[in-house]
Amino acid sequence: MTKTMSKYTLLPSCSKYAPNLIIVAACDGASSVGQIGNEVARILTKKYPNLVRMCCLAAVAAGSKIHLKIFRDAKAVIAINGCPLKCASNVLRKQGIEPAYEVTITELGVPKASTLDFDEEVAHKIALKIAEEFITKIKE
Length: 140
Fold this sequence. Notes:
- The protein is of the alpha/beta class and about 140 residues long.
- Helix content is about 45%, strand content about 15%.
- The chain has a 4-stranded parallel β-sheet with strand order 4-3-5-6, with helices on both faces. A two-stranded antiparallel ribbon has the order 1-2.
- β1 and β2 (about 10) form a beta hairpin.
- The longest helix is centred in the C-terminal third of the chain and has 20 residues, at about 120-140.
């Protein structure tokens, strides 16, 4: 499903392949944990390019019909929340979409800080946790 064009790798069309994909909704808030959430979604999408695809949570919140269909048609949905507000999970649930797996970064002992900087090693550890606890089970 993935194609390479010059230096960019194109992701599978989430609207076309949603039934075969785990769709990820991630926090992208203006804090360290929000940025970790976004990075985790990117890591998972790149590691499993034909199975995992991050998709626009803001479009879901705005009620975009195509994005709602993508999430509803998905093989499974992962919600990555940054902090106790759990925006990713709440946005999905308000649209009638139940995440199959959800994680909240602050509940993993990562403090929320008013910065866009974050520890990449922490993002990789959280991505590995999600892969081990959920993605590898869906792959089997």
